[in-house]
Amino acid sequence: MEGGTPTNGYDLPGVGWVSYWHSNGAAIHSTYWHNDYGRPRSHGCLNCSPEAAKWLFRWTTPAVAYDPGNIEVTWPGGTRVGIEGNPQPLASDSSS
């Protein structure tokens, strides 16, 4: 999983079960670098345990082959997943 800008980017190999939900690169995905779920720890992504991210990825449509690749679906066309709540911004966020 990679993204961001040339001066403020990221490259995290091995992030599994990624479901992008916003054009800015925000996604629901598994997280192997922490297990502190339910607290803001990302700049837009929803971190899940590998088991939860896998369940959500496989539950949503369209069904995606397990082969690596870029699958893009525009709405309408896939399962709409609502994300509720309004977590406090990270302390490092100066835009809020």
Structural class by secondary-structure content: alpha+beta
Helix content: 10-25%
Mean pLDDT equals: 76
Question: What profile does the largest beta sheet have?
Answer: 3 strands, mixed
Number of domains: 1
Low-confidence stretches: 92-96
Radius of gyration of CA atoms, rounded to a whole number: 14 Å
What is the strand arrangement across the widest sheet?
A: 3-4-5
How would you summarize the topology of this molecule?
Layout: E1 2-4, E2 9-11, E3 19-20, E4 27-30, E5 46-48, H1 50-59
Parallel strand pairs: 4-5
Antiparallel strand pairs: 1-2, 3-4
Brief characterization of the structure:
The chain has 96 residues and is an alpha+beta fold.
Description:
The chain has 96 residues and is an alpha+beta fold. It has one domain. Helices cover 10% and strands 16% of the residues. The protein has 1 helix and 5 strands. It has one helix at residues 50-59; strands at residues 2-4, 9-11, 19-20, 27-30, 46-48.
